[in-house]
Amino acid sequence: MSSAVHAEPAMTLRRRRLHLGTATKQAAFGYAILLPTLAILFIFRFLPMIEAFVIAFSKYDLIHPARFVGFANFVDLIHDPLFRNSARISLIYVVCSVLPVWPLSLGLAVLFNQSLFLKNVLRSAVFMPVVMPAVVMAVVWTFMYQQDGVLNTALGWFGIDPVPWLRSSSTALPAVILIGIWRATPYYMVIFLAGLQAIPTEYYEAAEIDGASRWAMFRDITLPLLKPTSLLVMVMTVIVAMKVFAVPMIMTGGGPSDSTRVLPLFIYQTAFEFFDMGRAAAMSVFLFVAVMLFSVAQIRIFTRGED
Amino acid sequence: MPGIADTAARGRANATARETRPGPRRSKPTQSLAHRVWSHRRTVLAFVLVLGAVAISVVPYLWMVLSSLRTMTNMFSVPIQWIPNPVNWRSYVLAWHAQDFPRYFFNSGVVAVAITLGNLLLCSLAGYSLAKFRYFGRGLLFVLILSTMMLPLEVTMVPLFLIIKRFDWVNSYQGLIVPFLVDGFGVFLMRQFMLGIPKDLIDSARIDGASELRIFFQIVLPLCKPALVALGVFTFREAWDMYIWPLIIVSKDSLRTLPLGISLFMSSYGTAWDQLMAIAVLGTLPMILLFFFLQRAFIQGIAVTGLKE
């Protein structure tokens, strides 16, 4: 009799213990399958970031042992006209390559968000710049930018004199920026298009009944509802523009007379052509802070208006 | 053309709402061409704008292909020789053998495939763990993984090179592949997708006695196919495109990837434009094929980078 009374709690306890056992086992499995990812990200992402800060405070040329120099690298950078020029070039590149991409990609997305004859084929065609590998793009555009190349020939049809493009320090940066815009616009068009398609059509139908103009609908429905997508595009375009490397590296190598030496290119050259790891790491820290500030600041500005 | 009819209907409702009325005849079948164009003017304008964008996007491709087939004597001829005559197929043969391009293609293929497979496996394992398991520190780990998206290679390349050097992985496939086997964004993507998989499905498989690994491979992964295809195509494209990292850690010719080979070819054969364009065409071909056959996934892979938490 008494054993029967005790049987139930004992069983519950055993069941609970069994349950606890499977929960722990499952947690262990959860950890186990996350482990390779954590290991790789730690060794190849976080460790380098930590090390970047360490190297930034040392003098290191890959041959002699690293030696702590305090803030010397940073102080040198601030007084280095080459670095200041490079930071300025990067800033110009970011501003000028990013600002046109926003309206262009959004505009294209709006065009493609309506019914259009041969829409899918045309959308694929517009998307083609994204498909082209960056290095190929640099080669093909270098060819088109030649003095007697196709772009100058085309300009000639409109009576415009040949532009020296990559040969002149005043046109090389715009030429590089132009390619950045060419490549980025269809990319962000796709993202905007996904954002547009997520907006319920009911809003537009209701607005139409109220007699709203197309512009009013765009301003009062599309833009506000596209806010999250727009923020993302803004942050992404800025960060991508800050990282630009392959195109200026291949097309100009930073020239003529440093006019296209963007920051990543300067970091690369400082580290792997002049073997000044400390200074390169200090510049990396600078770039890192710039990337961080941008994403954080833009997210702040954006969420301020909400609620 | 139901598409155009839709827009026309919308445009019409709009036109009625404002006071611009092209006339009551526009819905009748007997209207003139000019009239039809006028009543569809928004669609026509949109179409023209889109055609302009298409031209800007496609002309460099066309020019690349046409120039690869043109002889050097006709390369810069005025007026432009649009259709290559004679057709210069030899540029492809010459370019292909000018450097060890077969090897570069092979290397790029190995690296891109390995990185893609690694990401498919590791990102989905990590995403599964973060979406469907409960354990101490999960939220923090997720945030840490996400934060790696803010550490671009251009920022970490100097110390990363030093780490790879310490591993003695300079000039090796490991050095090209292992640091990129998993990616914070890929984990995020897979996690978001796996949150949508019903827990009951997994629990009932557990009750049936399936092992955790078996559940992952036979139940969870098949359900993630759309996300996997998008992630796979996206990763492959990025890996095929990789330039700065191979440039840093590869100096042996036998390990050069295609982007390195092309840029080297450009600096040494800078004026052999027919051959340069030929190798440019060949280097783009894998991406074109990928885009042609997996177009949806290709575009989806980019659309999802616009995902927000």
Concise synopsis of the structure shown:
The complex is a heterodimer of chains A (307) and B (309). With 307 residues, chain A is mainly α.
How is this structure best described in words?
The complex is a heterodimer of chains A (307) and B (309). Chain A is mainly α and 307 residues long. Chain A folds into two domains: 2-56; 71-304, MetI-like (MetI-like fold, Orthogonal Bundle). In chain A, 76% of the residues lie in helices and 1% in strands. Chain A has helices at residues 2-56, 72-79, 81-98, 101-112, 119-131, 134-144, 150-157, 172-197, 201-209, 214-225, 227-242, 246-251, 263-272, 277-304, and strands spanning 58-59, 67-68. Chain A has a two-stranded antiparallel ribbon with strand order 1-2. The model of chain A is unreliable at 1-8 (pLDDT under 50). By secondary structure, chain B is mostly helical. Chain B folds into two domains: 2-94, no CATH class; 95-306, MetI-like (MetI-like fold), CATH 1.10.3720.10. Chain B starts with a helix and ends in a 6-residue tail after the last helix.
Please outline the helices and strands.
The complex is a heterodimer of chains A (307) and B (309).
Chain A: H1 2-56, E1 58-59, E2 67-68, H2 72-79, H3 81-98, H4 101-112, H5 119-131, H6 134-144, H7 150-157, H8 172-197, H9 201-209, H10 214-225, H11 227-242, H12 246-251, H13 263-272, H14 277-304
Antiparallel strand pairs in A: 1-2
Helix pairs in contact in A: 1-14, 2-14, 3-8, 3-11, 4-8, 5-8, 8-11, 11-14, 13-14
Chain B: H1 2-17, H2 33-39, H3 41-68, H4 90-98, H5 101-132, H6 138-147, H7 153-166, H8 173-177, H9 184-195, H10 199-207, H11 212-223, H12 225-241, H13 244-249, H14 258-268, H15 273-293, H16 295-303
Helix pairs in contact in B: 3-15, 4-15, 5-9, 5-12, 5-14, 6-9, 10-11, 12-16, 14-15, 15-16
